[in-house]
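Ticket #4471: structure export looks truncated?
Reporter: QA, pipeline team
Priority: medium

Steps to reproduce: submit the single chain below to the structure queue and open the exported record.
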Amino acid sequence: MIEIRGLCKSFDGFQALTDININVPAASVYGIVGPNGSGKTTLIKHMTGILIPDQGTIKIKGEEVFDNPAVKSRVAYVPDDIYFFSQANMKDMVRFYQQVYPDFNQERLETLLPVFPIEEKMSIRRFSRGMKKHVAFMLALSMMPEVMILDEPMDGLDPIARRKVWSLIFQDVSERRSTIFVSSHNLRELEDVCDHVGILHQGKVVLERSLDEMQSNIFKLQMAFSGQVPALTGLDILSEQQTGSVIQLVVRGNRDEIINRATRFDPLMVDVLPLSLEEIFIHELGGLDYAVNSTII
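Actual output as written to the record:
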C-alpha cells in the first residue's frame, strides 16, 4: 500500500533522513517510533506531500504522493499541532473539506457528531487541545480515506476519547480496509494497536518488522543458581543485571534455543518472558550508542 524507497532529506547541511525504506501493508496499522529528533515528523511530512525529497520516492498504491492531488485526496493527515483557519467554526471547516475532498461524507459526519459533542458555531480556536483533536478526527474520518497518517494523534485526549477514536479507526481498517501510519511516543498504546513497527534513529530505519516477529526474537531470561553464576557463553546478550546468584538477561534469538542453552548452565530456575515494545525500543537503541541509563538528580 505505502512504499518508501531510498528517501533522503537534508536541511542546511543537516542530514534529517538517510536512505529510508519502509513498507506498509494494506489494511494494517503501522507504528513508527524513535527518540526526539529522530526524523519521525519529517518523514510524515514527506508522506503527506508537504516536503520535497532530496532523493527517493514515496508511493501510495503505486502512485507518487508529491504534487499529486488525486492521491492526497485519499489521505487523511492528523498532525501533532492542529491548525484551523483562525476564525473558523466546525461548520466552516466542513464546508472547506467538502470543497477539497470529493469523497467527504456528510452522513458519516452526522453519525460522529454525537460521539464527540462540540458547539458547531463556536470558533475552533477557543476549543481546548483535546476538543480540537475531536474536530480533526471527525473531519478526517468523514473524508472516507484510504490512508490515515497520524502524528502523536492521542496527545491531549482523555482515556475515554482515546478509546473512542481507536475504535472508529479499527472499524475503518476492518470494514473499509483503511491503512494507518501512526507516530507516537506512547509505546504502550502502540503495542496494543499496531501489527507492524519501525524504529527510526538519527534519520535511519534501524528495525522494521511485524510486532509479532519483533517480540518473538528478543526475550527476558531470568536464571537462579545455587552458587556463583557461570560464564554464560553461547547467548546473544543485549544487557544483563545480577543480584547475588540471580541474573536477568535480555537476549536475542529463538525462544526454544535460548531455553536449551540456558539449561546447560544447570540453573535452579529458568524463566523466559516476552519484552514489551517499550523494552524492545530501549534495548535496540541501547546498542546504537543511544544513552539508556537511569538518571538520578
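Status: closed, not a bug. The export was complete when the record was re-opened. Leaving a note from the reviewer for reference: The mean pLDDT is 92.
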